[in-house]
Specification:
mainly alpha; Cyclin A, domain 1; 2 domains; 2 strands; globular
């Protein structure tokens, strides 16, 4: 089995073990978009030197990765689809709530994951994340979504935004 991301050989087994668990949780509760983002988190942790994944058990890291991504994307908000309470996550992985919360905080600290972190926001939610679209232009902060398409295109070409909002339709959101 080839790994989708560059994972150090020393961490390949740990990465596979943790993502096998998170993939199962996502299949049951969250879906493909969460699965991919959680795999990115586990991959980023596996590439850290030294990797925090080398200590602790796979179930704790799996639960914490799910919780960390979920927290950034408001997974416990019942108005979101999907939504899932932390208790469900911890029970699925068979770990204590304190363990899961502590590991989740560790992941969020290591990877600088915060609410509205553009790098850790699910793609389907980027359009609604104000931090993605705030840019400094001539010393002023602007929401690029309210700018002419030419300025949006320039920001996209420079890699400042993930897509051109004016060209986004309801169908592609």
């Amino acid at each position: 089995m080839s790994l989708p991301e560059k994972i150090p050989k020393a961490m390949a087994d740990k990465f596979s073990a943790v993502t096998k668990l998170t993939d199962a949780f996502c299949a049951k509760h969250l879906g493909e978009e969460y699965r991919q983002m959680i795999r990115q988190v586990v991959g980023a942790l596996a590439r850290k030197r030294p990797s925090p994944l080398s200590r602790g058990n796979e179930n704790a890291w799996a639960a914490a990765a799910v919780h960390a991504v979920g927290r950034v994307n408001f997974l416990d908000d019942p108005s979101q689809t999907p939504h899932c309470k932390p208790k469900v996550i911890y029970e699925f992985f068979g770990i204590a709530q304190n363990t899961g919360q502590n590991k989740s905080r560790e992941i969020r600290d290591i990877l600088k994951m915060e609410i509205f972190s553009p790098d850790w926001t699910l793609h389907s939610r980027l359009v609604d994340n104000p931090m993605v679209w705030m840019l400094q232009v001539n010393g002023l902060m602007i929401d690029i979504r309210r700018s002419p398409i030419e300025l949006q295109q320039l920001a996209f070409e420079k890699g400042l935004i993930p897509f051109i909002p004016a060209m986004q339709t309801e169908k592609t959101r």
